[in-house]
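Following up on my earlier thread - several people asked me to post the actual chain instead of describing it. Fair enough. Here it is, all 331 residues.
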Amino acid sequence: EFGWQALAQIVGGDRADQSASALLAAARLGVEARFSALEETTPAPVAKTWKDVPLPAAVQMAESLAFGQWDDVLASRAPSNDANAAWFALARAEALARLGRRDDAEAANFDAWKAIRRQHGTGENAPGFFSGSSAGEGVDLTPWANVKRTEDWAGGQNNNLSSLEEMSEQPGGYRFHPRDFILLAGKSLRLTGGRMLPRSTGWIPLNRPAREAAFLVAACYVDVSEHLQDHCIGSLFLLRKGGRGAVRIPLIYGRNVWDWWTPSSGYIKEAPDEAVAWTGDNPNATYHRHKLKLYRIQWEAGPGEAPVVALSIASHVRRPAPMLMAAEVVR
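Reply from S.P.:
Thanks for posting it. Predicted structure:
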């Protein structure tokens, strides 16, 4: 066993700060068996390997990246499958982000998205043409939606979102326009209405190139006995204009996404008021003394950054399962 701070001393020298950041990023990925150290997920027990990648490989990857030798490491440790390929790409993106190499990190995120799609048995797709609709009408999720608002699902009779019709104005002056929505598979939720749930989507075109966007999200099918605070259950990917890189927004239970039944289960901190976009009810939830809530995630491009033109959502197939109800181009 080894500590993160001890690992930081391996590099040393004048470049210790930058190199140590990259080193710790990959080491934490291996030690915690998580997708991203920046997610600040609860540490898991130390394991000797993860995804068949020995922990010393994680150390070597970060150390080599810090000294600009990543391609040599990747060539000598070619991923054995698409799950490993996604892990390698996200590990690289993590370390690159910590070194301040944003464009390279976003290219690695894009590589990870492609590996995830291959892992799920689906291919890539071009984001398609813009609809030409104006901001404020919402992104069209219809081609990817797999659950109807009025459909009973995930809990039995009268457990649906029929009451989700009118939404109040959100901070920033826009409104979500939810219709049918996207539900992805989770650890124990693979079917609804006799249909297999997807694990990810292809690229969904936005209304227009966006410098600011908002997403209506939630999670479902929680094991009440598990401690799920800070578990990363999925990722939102936003494709940069030009198609060579992607922003990744990790969906972290108890941080930026919560169960649609509240009070939430899984021993988590409840959502703050500023994260709640909608509150409602249905007969099933009311019977069990719960309310319904959906949550808002907002993203904004930084100064000098390119806008985004498409979105995709992927499940990490854990518990709970991620849901995308609506997306809005704010500007």
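The chain has a mean pLDDT of 77. That should answer part of your original question.
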